[in-house]
Amino acid sequence: MTSRRFQPVALLLTLALYAAPIFAAEKLPVAVPEAVGLSGERLDRLTQTMQQYVDNGQLSGSVVLVARHGQVAYFRAFGQRDVEAKSPMADDAIFRIASQTKALVSTAILMLQEEGKLLISDPAGRYLPEFENTKVAVAKQGGGYDIVDAVRPITIRQLLTHTSGSSYGHGPAADKWKAAGIQDWYFAHRDEPIRKTIARLAALPFDAQPGEKYIYGYNTDILGAVVEAASGQPLDVFLRTRIFEPLKMQDTHFYLPNDKRNRLATVYSAKNGKIARAPTEGTMQSQGAYVDGPRKSFSGGAGLLSTATDYARFLQMMLNGGELDGTRLLSPKTVELMTTDHLQGLEFRPGQGFGLGFSVVKDLGERGLHGSVGEYGWGGAYHSTYWVDPAEDMVVVYFTQLLPAGGLDDHGKLRALIYQAIVD
To answer: What is the pTM of this model?
Structure first.
């Protein structure tokens, strides 16, 4: 393998091209790509491809951050934060991270277990009495459904692994969920505390018996209520004081401070291969109530806003075995537990399992994408994604704001073009 040799001027130019924006915020260390086993020349392919999505009108803008061996080697913003306002995308733009909230709330649960406040084997009803006896809707042949008792209590571990039976309200008893006003993941417009919503949710019939099926849904919103009950603190306070402030995640919030409102990226929707500005209010595709809404509902499943830098700091803590810059949130054994498959053969995705808040790669060939066995990650409804690859000692954060995405292939190309740049 041929190594590239840098003159001092070339070294400074490469640092400016790939890493300069990181100095604007609380940062991870910065390195030229070659210093961490990446090819700067090959990363140019990633830059050109991501810019093409903007130039072709398929994306308004995006931010990509790649850290390897604990150092940021690639950090670029593309396109516009707001196309109509001609506001450029900045590296410190704030994004609606939706389901990327789940990893942070799952981390809060495991921190409480480490403090002896709960066990993940505990029934959720120990902390939320309304979950002591839940119901399940069973579809009948020919239409309709029966409502039966759950055969076992829902556990915290089942909530962490999305095996509690809770969907986003579109199962056999969707009519009852709709009538209760609890469907889909968007909570920012709700003028009630999350505990009140979750208490009402507990009375509705779930889609499957606890522990018998992977169903993606309100599980982590329920966990947010468990965090409140077990810690004695509101969810926003616990996350801010126990995770965000210790990790110096200075731009991660449920609701945006007024002095940061001009950094929030605009939501767009894909239509006929091009983008259009999403509605102002009223739907989960909207710009949302993150600035001017009621500010009462702290959705543990999808409520947070963040930046690429902030989220990378959280992921680097996980990759480091629970510690960052001398601050330890979790033990290495807890991180290991979180990033191990817990589905025990339940159907999920080809080549993947699910841990305690993250999907986990089990078989690289079966999945059919670049990566490594043991890689873990997830994404958000606004088309963001992230992953941690322990085998490559690498963290990737990709933020954009596109809902729906219309079959865009940027996630696949992002992954392929990052891995083709690894040269050590």
So the answer is: 0.92
